[in-house]
């Protein structure tokens, strides 16, 4: 069940209705989701379901679903399982023949991609890059990627990440940093990696951030005829 990434008006009528009808709501953070449910006058009981306990709770949840209960899964913002808890439970449901339905709705990377103005006919979603182990290796792989790339970056790591873009992608690579999407202070900062880095070095970023990076441009040199005058005459 997608939930708004900022603007509560992005909650769908269908989502509100179903959250009122289900037997249980699984929430990433019950305190955060509690505010959302209170706003829409939803009194359905909640259980905490996050990356630290999802492995332990799945067996019990599958038993409840098999017994006929309907359960809704929400994350703090956006669509569950997109860099958020949800995959493990979905996989377990599929393996047990339990019907799964994902409602369409809010997610951060789609508006960021469209807002960027970069090619979106083909793209790759990277989510969060590895913290330490494997980070350099991933950068070396992405440096050769020709599709537009989408990454999630925490605000306190944005400047460091942009500096790494300059190192691995080159200072002229086109990027767009989308910040606080759907909120009052939404910002879409476009430019080269060097330009955007300079901006955020002067203006410390805040809020949820999505970075869209142009893919590597493949330059194909035109084949030149190098025939001699005699060869052309023949």
Automatic annotation (TrEMBL):
An MF annotation (GO) of this entry: rRNA (cytosine-2'-O-)-methyltransferase activity
Domain of life: Bacteria
SUPFAM superfamilies: Tetrapyrrole methylase
Family note: Belongs to the methyltransferase superfamily. RsmI family.
Function (record text): Catalyzes the 2'-O-methylation of the ribose of cytidine 1402 (C1402) in 16S rRNA.
InterPro entries (alphabetical): 4pyrrol_Mease (IPR000878), 4pyrrol_Methylase_sf (IPR035996), 4pyrrole_Mease_sub1 (IPR014777), 4pyrrole_Mease_sub2 (IPR014776), rRNA_ssu_MeTfrase_I (IPR008189), SAM_MeTrfase_RsmI_CS (IPR018063)
Domain Tetrapyrrole methylase: 3-196
Taxonomic source organism: Flavobacterium seoulense
Protein name: Ribosomal RNA small subunit methyltransferase I
Statement: the UniProt record of this protein carries the keyword Chloroplast: no
Main subcellular location of this protein, as a coarse class: cytoplasm
GO cellular component term of the entry, any: cytoplasm
Enzyme's top EC category: transferase
UniProt-listed PROSITE patterns: RSMI (PS01296)
EC numbers for this chain: 2.1.1.198
The reaction(s) this protein catalyses: cytidine(1402) in 16S rRNA + S-adenosyl-L-methionine = 2'-O-methylcytidine(1402) in 16S rRNA + S-adenosyl-L-homocysteine + H(+)
Subcellular localization(s) per the UniProt record: Cytoplasm
